[in-house]
Design a protein that fits this description.
Layout lengths: L1 H51 L7 H26 L7 H12 L2 H11 L6
Helix pairs in contact: 1-2, 2-4
Length: 123
């Protein structure tokens, strides 16, 4: 009877582990694509609208909004690039090293995100 209970507990752990594995391999990348894509499109439209209006470049606050939007756009694009790059293999050792250093560690996404957060306010 004790052996059956241990077996049930182990099956529960394996089932929970399989569920977490599914979430990490299927759901999380899909959500990352969605957030990165929607953010890229939205920030792209805002940046395009601000760049098309020539008078918007004359005010400091609009320049600040353009800088902020550009940094957010880069952050979203790098987020999608990071997720996509994990699916491809590269033959060169140098390219593997660069990809590991910049993309697999999320360094590029972190730099763009932190730049966006620490963008100085206009006085």
């Amino acid at each position: 009877m004790v052996a059956e209970n241990v077996s049930d507990v182990e099956d529960g752990k394996n089932h929970l582990s399989a569920r977490h594995h599914y979430l990490l391999t299927q759901v999380l990348p899909a959500c990352t694509y969605a957030v990165g894509s929607v953010g890229s499109v939205a920030n792209g439209f805002v940046l395009l609208a601000l760049l098309c209006v020539h008078q918007s470049r004359r005010k400091n606050i609009n320049v600040f909004i353009m800088n902020q939007t550009f940094l957010d756009l880069l952050s979203c694009l790098f987020l999608v690039l990071t997720t996509v790059s994990r699916r491809f293999e590269t033959p060169s050792l140098t390219s593997k090293w660069i990809i590991c250093l910049l993309i697999d560690t999320n360094a590029v996404v972190a730099v763009a995100s932190y730049s966006s957060k620490s963008n100085p306010k206009v006085h």
